[in-house]
Amino acid sequence: MVGNETMISTNIADNPDLQYYQTVYGCLILVILATSLVRGFVFMKTTLMASSRMHDQVFMKVFRSPMSYFDTTPSGRIIGIFSRDMDEVDTRVPFLIECLVQNSFLILSSLLFVCLVFPYFLPVLVVLMVVFLYIRKVFRVGIRDLKRLDNVARSPLFSHINTTVNGLATINAYGKQNLFFKRFLVLFDESNCAFYLFNCAMRWLAVRLDLLALLVTSSTAMFSLVLRGSVEASFAGLALAYAGQLGGIFQYSVRLSAETEAKFTSVQRLNNCIKFLVSEAPPVIESNRPDPVWPQYGRITFRNVQMKYRSDTPIILKGVTFAIDSLENIGVVGRTGSGKSSLGVVLFRLVELAAGTIRIDGIDISTLGLDDLRSHLSIIPQDPVLFIGTIRYNLDPFERHTDAELWSALEKTSMKERISSLEAGLSAPVVENGENFSVGERQLLCMARALLRNSKILFLDEATASIDSETDSKIQRTLKESFTNCTMITIAHRLNTVMWCTRVLVMDDGKVVEFDTPAALLANPASVFAQMVAKAQSNSP
Q1: What digits encode the pLDDT tens for the residues 154-180?
Q2: Which of 188, 168, 185 is nearest to 176 (CA)?
């Protein structure tokens, strides 16, 4: 006779279905791990690609922006875009979105389970949702503006730090450390005000969310008591457990939602850069590319050229008209603000013309792509620029020349001996802004770079900083001996340096007042140039 037996044991190992449960739970854990890994990888890859693409688009927009953008935009704002805003998009926003999506599923599944166990909870949930949406509507208006204010308030702080670092030598020389430190404290406090208010607003929201979560838990507990007997205890307990965990998850999720929306102001700023920043002319116009050997002669013609730096500023160049023949050496003189340097601005199309045309070897430069134009011209600016790297990199950044050609260019600019004295030679390091070289040496290195480019047109803006007589003589000798095969325009700040020029262009108030040989202008005592020379000689010791 075989009968049924019921065995009671407190040892889980005695459960005949133990292996089945272990298999099921083990498989579920593996599935959860696999899906989590796939989800994390896909999400990370997608957000990383999106942020990288946005960074590249913003960088190209800023890189291709006209000079007017940099004239009107504080450096702190640009630094903020590529530091704080990009950091938010790269790190904080993806993390917040991932947590928000995950917690949203947890909240929805918990509420759905409570509603399935206690259908009468649904009307209560609707009322609580209305209250929640009202709180969020009130909250999100302020939180978004506070975050935007926080971002805006940091730009003056970044600008002040940047200005202080760049002018540290001057600040120390005049003993203005306390003034700049006090200004820093004021800007720092102003930038933290919005951040402090943002945290206060988050605390305001947290209290109200805790009350809503408490109402959800209390309602679930009340239904468990009222409906006892009609609902299985196991389901009621599970529903109560889900409702209990909503307190922390709900508040955290709403805070994530608010913070995500606030962080999206950084995305908005980057998107505004992409959408609204006006770019320069295209780098290349395929339908109108110049000959590779252009310009062959270096003839330059200005015809009724008018230019203003921005649409809301006065005209700087007022109907400038002149012609420069091949291989001429033109010296440009005039008082400060007369428009001398603006000639280089329009020649390189840093600012587009308001009227008139500029032709080089008969080609209107406004019809060319910027890369095609600028790559065929050379410039040695007033403040010669050297980049962090090596001497070789600064002379030949694209590695188009041999070391022999580099040494030849250095010899022509009287810098061979100086570079040879360095232990590493052409591989010698160049620090930021070329501070390990004097202003004159930097200008000579820029001349060597221009020689290697072998351009038919050279634009030189003389350095106004103090240069010792030996270096100055090297610069003048290099200009006279090594740049004889190109048309040269020299913005002169010392009248003695233009006496050997082919012709002298005298500017005043954005207009050409005289254009003739130095001898012809000096022969006329009534000429502006002769008066400038006489005044300079009378002021000299």
Answers
A1: 778 888 888 898 888 889 888 889 999
A2: 168
Q: What radius of gyration do the chain's Cα atoms show? A: 36
Sign of CA dihedral 217, 221, 222, 223: positive
- CB contact set of 476 (below 8 Å; sequence gap of 6+): 497
Q: How far apart are CA 52 and CA 47, in angstroms?
A: 8
User: By three-state DSSP, how is residue 370 classified?
Assistant: helix
Question: Helices then strands (H, E): number in the chain?
Answer: 18, 12
Which helix (H) or strand (E) segment holds residue 415: the answer is: none
- What does the alpha-carbon distance between residue 387 and residue 390 come to, in Å, rounded to a whole number? 8
- According to DSSP, the β-strands at 378-380 and 457-461 are parallel
End-to-end CA distance of the chain: give it in Å, rounded. Answer: 135
Backbone angles phi, psi at 204, to 5 degrees: -60, -45
% of the chain beyond a pLDDT of 90 = 36
| Cα gap 296→141, rounded to integer Å | 63
Extract the tokens encoding 161. 């730090």
Sign of torsion over alpha carbons 280, 284, 288, 293: positive
> ∠216-219-224 over CA atoms, to 5°?
125
Place of tokens 């095969």: 485
The residues, ordered by sequence, that sit 6+ positions from 115 with a Cβ below 8 Å of its Cβ are 121, 122, 125
Alpha carbon of 439 to those of 171, 308, 479: distances in Å?
21, 30, 16
Cα three-residue angle 326-328-334, rounded to 5 degrees? 135
What is the Cα–Cα distance from 487 to 329, expressed in whole angstroms? 6
Tokens 């803006």 found at: 461
Strand ranges in 211-338 using DSSP code E only, listed in sequence order: 300-307, 317-324, 329-333
Q: How many Å apart are CA 18 and CA 108, to the nearest integer?
A: 32
Between residues 510 and 71, the one the model is more confident about: 510
Average of pLDDT values for 31-50? 88
Instruction: Report the chain's mean pLDDT, rounded to a whole number.
Output: 86
Q: Domains along the chain?
A: 18-276 (1.20.1560.10), 288-539 (3.40.50.300)
φ/ψ region of 420 (left if φ > 0, alpha if ψ in -120 to 50, else beta) reads alpha
Least confident span in 233-242, 369-378, 464-473:
464-473
To which H or E segment does residue 445 belong? Answer: helix 439-453
Q: Output the pLDDT for position 10.
A: 65
| CB contact set of 407 (below 8 Å; sequence gap of 6+) | 416, 426
Phi, psi of 381 (to 5 degrees): -75, 170
